[in-house]
């Protein structure tokens, strides 16, 4: 499938995976709606093809603003062919230390926000009997890993919502639904991840620094979307293995992640800093 002249709406387009997706879609001749909170960063992304980009900034958890945001997006070209719910925030803290508000924030940004935006756009796609909804979940949406209990919960939940939506609208209305499952991709995700008290972690970690190149990840995501794949894993090495083990031998996977948890618990008991997990993924 060609994306030329298609209208693609990407949230979290101001950095990382969303920015790389926006660049790739623009190169393929698409018209791209760029959303996020940082207007300057969105303008920088749009500068490569201003005539084919609409900068549409909004805070994704500002639910009362969504009806107008969706109207503006739709009015730009009279339709939206694809929505990629990509905006998100990760976590680096053990459950034992994590404030309840951090869980609430992760659920809002990583689950409620993509759900709410999709709820407003879905009726328009249903009316057209056409469209493609996508969400960037994670390997962590299939595999529970230490230091990410709130993130894993939200990323698991968002898969449940989109799988159920697919069951309702794919055959009935011809609307595709794709769930994207990246492993570690080299972006600012670890720097922006929430700590136990809700503050941004402020530093990256080796898993992410050595993660997949973001443009390679974007190319693979585009290839999956072009085929309207229902599930698009973007993972290598131990993360790809974890996805397979989750289905083939979950007991073995649980033992591996428990070993990782024991290592982190020992570090916590010793009062040291916590190394990011080996069974990882944001
Ligand atoms: N990198 C990885 O290893 C990895 C792996 C699996 C899944 N993911 C997922 O991939 C997605 C993109 O992450 P990334 O790696 O590209 O990290 P990133 O560079 O930190 O990008 C996060 C994006 O989300 C936007 N965002 C965050 N909170 C928002 C809010 N409240 N309202 C509106 N926009 C918000 C940010 O835009 P503003 O700051 O401008 O608002 C930014 O563009 C996330 O859903 C993440 O969970 C990443």
UniProtKB/TrEMBL annotation:
Pfam families: adh_short (PF00106). SUPFAM superfamilies: NAD(P)-binding Rossmann-fold domains. Keywords: Oxidoreductase. Coiled coil: none annotated. It comes from the Bacteria. GO terms for molecular function: oxidoreductase activity. InterPro entries: KR_dom (IPR057326), NAD(P)-bd_dom_sf (IPR036291), Sc_DH/Rdtase_CS (IPR020904), SDR_fam (IPR002347). Residues 6-188 form the Ketoreductase domain. GO terms for cellular component: membrane. PANTHER family: DEHYDROGENASE/REDUCTASE SDR FAMILY MEMBER 7B (PTHR44196), DEHYDROGENASE_REDUCTASE SDR FAMILY MEMBER 7B (PTHR44196:SF1). Belongs to the short-chain dehydrogenases/reductases (SDR) family. This is Oxidoreductase.
